[in-house]
Write a structure and sequence with these properties.
Layout lengths: L7 E3 L1 H11 L8 E2 L54 E7 L26 E7 L2 E11 L10 H41 L5 E3 H9 L11 H23 L23 E6 H10 L9 H4 L1 E5 L11 E4 L1 E3 L5 E3 L3 E3 L2 E7 L3 E12 L8 E14 L5 E5 L2
Parallel strand pairs: 1-5, 2-9, 6-16, 7-8
Antiparallel strand pairs: 3-4, 5-15, 7-13, 9-12, 10-11, 13-16, 14-15
Helix pairs in contact: 1-2, 4-5
Amino acid sequence: MSVNTMSKQQAYALINAIHQEATGQVSIQPTDLSSFISVAQATLQSGYENTLNAITQVLQRTIIAVRPYDEKFKGLQMSADSWGGIIRKINFADRESIADPTHETVEGQSIDQYTVRKPKVIETRYVGSDVYMGSYTIYREQLKTAFENEANFGSFITGLMTHFANERKQWLESLKRSLLANTIAAKADINDADSNIHLLTEYNALTGLSLTATTVMQPANYKPFMQWVYSRVSEISRLMSERSELFQQKITNYPIMRHTDVRDQRVYMSAKFLDSMDAMVLADTYHDNFLRYADVEAVTYWQAIRNPLQVSATPVYIDAAGAVKTGEAQVLSNVIGVMFDRDAMGYNIYNDVIETSPYNAKGQYYNMFAHMDIQLQNDLTEKAVVLYLD
């Protein structure tokens, strides 16, 4: 079932699938981002302690092996709203200029200054959301047998809560990766030449070389290529700041002109190439450049940690008629960057709560539940560009 309905869509299956790819548990798989498919999840099966079956009963020294995780792609978060799952976006289309009658007056005739000329306004809407829930059971008495004192037990509970928060952050990060993957795959499905930049193809055409993704890595080729890539990315950034229809999906035959100033640009680049650009290009140049002002983030991998430059997804996006369209499955290699307007994609969290069940006096435990509704927003009528190393 598509999420683009008024119903709430369970997100756990998508999260599990992308999470397994992202953490290297499985190799990259085609991911249908327009509908979710259930994926089995292994459960913990080892140990001795009789509640969690994972902790020995007597320990001389305890190390709580957890630390807070800082999730990626924070720039994708939009404002938090609690009032519901419908967001409308008001767009304004350009109109043609009209004749000025100032110098064409005719004796005995008047100029009508009350002629109606309505503005072209288009409303688009985001509806539907994905729901997430995580839970933990907290034991009060039974777990005491695994710790020699209250301090150790308190450290365990603190570590458990940190792990709970880390899980939530990484599941949310996996959804953000799916949002990026959807944009990349949608751009490929639309097949807009302006929005899909094949850097090696352009570089070879410009220089007369015949470099491949392998030979470009040779020392004699790599630095001049990266210097050119920087200049090309800078050029794209400037083009995005011009008011035009470039790099965006056209809808309803209305000319919607948009511009994205550098401060509103998001530049997510493969960490390998961003680091190379920094070492080989920016180290030799004045640092007052667009990368200093745009929201730039190094991306270690797009979808699967074992296939860092690959995207495999079935996208959903708005078509030229303004309707929701599910595209063809895309398997894309050598994706090294995405540049986009801050409004082209993002996510909104609402109904974000953590609730605790009443204490179970007989079993001496209680449960904690984390709930949140997540609305992943993708609007390709805003500017977005995908960069490839091919």
